[in-house]
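User: My collaborator sent over this chain with a note saying "see what the structure looks like." That's all I know about it. Can you take a look?
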Amino acid sequence: MAYFEHEGCNLHYEEYGHGTPLLLVHGLGSSTLDWEMQIPALSAHHRVIVPDVRGHGRSDKPRERYSIAGFSADLIALMEHLNLGPAHLVGLSMGGMIAFQLAVDQPQLLKSLCIVNSAPEVKRRSRNDYWQWFKRWSLMRALSMGTIGKALGAKLFPKPEQASLRQKIAARWAKNDKHAYLASFDAIVDWGVQERLSRVSCPTLVVSADRDYTPVALKETYVKLLPDARLVVIADSRHATPLDQPERFNQTLLEFLTAVDTTTQDH
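Assistant: Without extra context I'll predict from the sequence alone. Here is the result:
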């Protein structure tokens, strides 16, 4: 268990294995545990670094406004703290947004980028967007973290054989600091870097579940805006692909990372 300090906030991270550095960034209301099915497979080939985003897991939860740019700055500070040099970066959901922010701000820090079930912007444009956001915001304010966790578990892992995953998510969600969770949700709303995607210079893999919250078509649209990107759709998966299709996800990611590392060694 390791910690470092950035702007008065103690941030927790874990390290495994050796090789090219690989950062894994979890989603909203989650923690390093998002990646429990990835760490053994990935750390056999890479130096895997798994942080808890500010307000999450074992990191401090300061009562302040959070922002995606702020989360990204924490990640850059961690890379400097560990003296990493260019690294592979993988982000799931909100972690994907943090990864996009870092990739457009500091493209030279990245060897590759992998975005999982995420998008380069979350904009409210129509009246319906505002209404959907308001409904979700009100529900999150009204319900306990335990109740949200149970509902989320049922949505992410609906199959009878996924009962243990449902229980795991419900138990983890209940431990969230509600203030930090809401502040992180607020950080996502109206954030976006889509107009700057041409700055992302590294090879990019976009992974989408076939049954993610947002349609595959949305990912196809932004993949075209990235200079060197391809999309892989994982079948029979929902928003938590690394947990519901771990073997398929790990194989897809490792093949991509190996190809990137081989190409950079050749140059």
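A starting point for your reply to your collaborator: The first strand starts at residue 2 and ends at 6.
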